[in-house]
């Protein structure tokens, strides 16, 4: 079977990562093996509706939008995510994949821009980070840290050096956890330490709040 369980497919502005502000179709797959304490998509853990790859591709193309983001949940928890990514690339779309970093990315189509979320200690899921993914990343890819506290920030700084992340990927994002860390505080830490990263806030939440389908 070439079905995927889908929570939602919708058209919005990309709220984070390299193409922030760009009109994008989001394909949110159902299910996730992680339980990050700050998760903003818990509604995607269960339920969803099975759709074939043909159905998904047709729905995405129907929005007449050149960018598509496959997200979750954790999209790579469903094996058929891999052929979906390939299909979307073959359709001529600019494809990004938002993944937790807890799943093997080795089979992801090389045309896809991977946005890898390295889990910080305060997420509660740091031990799930699959560090063997990092050498597979390239300049087209991106790494994101969601920062909840000063200790998270220091851990992320350490990872920049230990894993030699600067120069490995095109962009490294430090994003404040939505309700747990004042954005200005994180911004000042980055400036004080001259970190070669990009500060990021979630545009979609600034525009429409913390809700599904945006």
Automatic annotation (TrEMBL):
Which Pfam families does this chain map to? Answer: Radical_SAM
Enzyme Commission number, as recorded: 4.3.99.3
- What Gene3D superfamilies does the record tag this protein with? Aldolase class I
Q: Write out the GO MF terms.
A: 4 iron, 4 sulfur cluster binding; carbon-nitrogen lyase activity; magnesium ion binding; S-adenosyl-L-methionine binding
Q: How is the cofactor bound?
A: Binds 1 S-adenosyl-L-methionine per subunit.
User: Boundaries of each Radical SAM core domain copy?
Assistant: 19-210
Q: Give the binding site residues for [4Fe-4S] cluster.
A: 32, 36, 39
Name the UniProt key words of this record, in alphabetical order.
4Fe-4S, Iron, Iron-sulfur, Lyase, Magnesium, Metal-binding, Queuosine biosynthesis, S-adenosyl-L-methionine
Which pathway or pathways does this protein act in? Purine metabolism; 7-cyano-7-deazaguanine biosynthesis
List the catalytic activities from the record: 6-carboxy-5,6,7,8-tetrahydropterin + H(+) = 7-carboxy-7-carbaguanine + NH4(+)
Residues binding Mg(2+): 41
Q: What residues bind substrate, as annotated?
A: 13-15, 28, 71
CDD domains, sorted: Radical_SAM
Q: Which cofactor does it need?
A: Mg(2+); S-adenosyl-L-methionine; [4Fe-4S] cluster
Against InterPro entries, the record matches this protein to: 7-CO-7-deazaguanine_synth-like (IPR024924), Aldolase_TIM (IPR013785), rSAM (IPR007197), rSAM_QueE_gams (IPR027621), rSAM_sf (IPR058240)
Residues that hold S-adenosyl-L-methionine according to the record: 38-40, 73
Q: Mind listing the GO biological process terms from this record?
A: tRNA queuosine(34) biosynthetic process
Superkingdom assignment: Bacteria
Q: What class of enzyme is it?
A: lyase
Q: How does it assemble?
A: Homodimer.
Entry similarity comment:
Belongs to the radical SAM superfamily. 7-carboxy-7-deazaguanine synthase family.
- Function, as annotated: Catalyzes the complex heterocyclic radical-mediated conversion of 6-carboxy-5,6,7,8-tetrahydropterin (CPH4) to 7-carboxy-7-deazaguanine (CDG), a step common to the biosynthetic pathways of all 7-deazapurine-containing compounds.
Q: What is this protein called?
A: 7-carboxy-7-deazaguanine synthase
Q: What is the lineage of its organism?
A: Bacteria, Pseudomonadati, Pseudomonadota, Gammaproteobacteria, Cellvibrionales
Gene encoding this polypeptide?
queE
